[in-house]
């Protein structure tokens, strides 16, 4: 997993090892960028206990609904205000519903679920983000940014078995650190890194990706890569930690 420490180290290598010196006129900066990511995703962990006390049962939602794969899509919008400052928006819907069986009786969000019937499980984790970033370095072949992201988390865990339906929803704000870099290591070919994340208190959130992109045209790039999303919360009302993995195909348009 690309943790906060690992991501910070990678960012510093790109920023300091490759980005000595600043040259904001070395490459033209597009005013707007639109990128679409899509591809399969899997989950290697998704543990739930609601409420997070003796009245709730901790169980694996991964074991219930499976590990995947399912299909994901994500939209990135970037507005470069000038050579230094940029605003970002990310729309990342995610929802999985599948049917499975529980290995033991589960008490979840006030509902009782038995082992002798199948259960429909739903996991929704939509992420809507707005962010600002500052270009630390811009020279021939390398850009490095740092900033912050305001994330609106729209989450739900839901179980259905016969007439029994129980769910827990969560709509909340999460502040995240943003780090990003792209390095043109060959003609028309780049290594892109991006990270939104923060850890502290009862929870954490890490969203990191590495992609190789190829410039089809001076306004169009295609890419392939890997993204990982890990995190959760451990509070009185909820225990939920998940780890998701994405295989990415992307298309970006620059205006």
Q: Mind explaining what this structure looks like?
A:
The structure is a single chain. The chain has one domain. 8% of the residues lie in helices and 68% in strands. It has a ten-stranded antiparallel β-barrel. Strands 6-7 form a two-stranded antiparallel sheet. It is mostly beta strands and 255 residues long. The chain is elongated and about 60 Å long. It has two helices and 14 strands; from the N terminus they run H-E-E-H-E-E-E-E-E-E-E-E-E-E-E-E.
Structural class: mainly beta
Assign an overall shape.
elongated
Strand order across the largest sheet: 1-3-4-8-9-10-11-12-13-14
- Secondary structure: number of strands: 14
List keywords for this structure.
255 residues; 68% strand; single chain; mainly beta; two-stranded antiparallel sheet; ten-stranded antiparallel beta barrel; 2 helices
List the helices and strands and how they pair.
Layout: H1 4-18, E1 32-49, E2 59-60, H2 61-65, E3 70-80, E4 85-92, E5 95-100, E6 106-108, E7 111-113, E8 119-139, E9 142-161, E10 164-186, E11 189-200, E12 203-217, E13 220-234, E14 239-254
Antiparallel strand pairs: 1-2, 1-3, 1-14, 3-4, 4-8, 5-8, 6-7, 8-9, 9-10, 10-11, 11-12, 12-13, 13-14
């Amino acid at each position: 997993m690309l943790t906060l420490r690992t991501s910070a180290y990678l960012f510093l290598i790109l920023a300091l090892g490759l980005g000595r010196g600043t040259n904001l006129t070395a490459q033209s900066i597009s005013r707007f960028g639109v990128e679409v990511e899509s591809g399969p995703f899997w989950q290697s962990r998704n543990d739930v206990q609601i409420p997070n006390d003796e009245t709730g049962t901790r169980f694996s939602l991964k074991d219930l609904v499976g590990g995947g794969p399912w299909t994901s899509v994500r939209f990135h919008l970037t507005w470069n205000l000038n050579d230094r400052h940029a605003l970002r928006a990310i729309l990342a819907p995610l929802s999985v519903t599948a049917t499975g069986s529980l290995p033991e009786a589960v008490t979840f969000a006030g509902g009782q679920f038995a082992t002798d019937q199948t259960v429909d499980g739903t996991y929704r984790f939509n992420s809507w983000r707005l962010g600002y970033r500052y270009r630390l370095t811009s020279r021939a072949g390398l850009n490095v940014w740092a900033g912050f992201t305001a994330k609106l988390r729209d989450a739900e865990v839901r179980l259905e078995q016969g007439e029994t339906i129980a769910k827990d929803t969560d709509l909340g704000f999460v502040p995240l650190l943003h780090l990003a870099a792209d390095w043109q290591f060959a003609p028309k070919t780049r290594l892109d890194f991006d990270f939104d994340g923060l850890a502290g208190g009862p929870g954490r959130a890490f969203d990191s990706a590495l992609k190789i992109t190829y410039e089809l045209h001076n306004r169009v790039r295609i890419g392939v890569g890997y993204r990982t999303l890990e995190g959760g919360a451990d509070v009185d009302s909820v225990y939920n930690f998940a780890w998701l993995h994405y295989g990415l195909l992307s298309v970006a348009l620059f205006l």
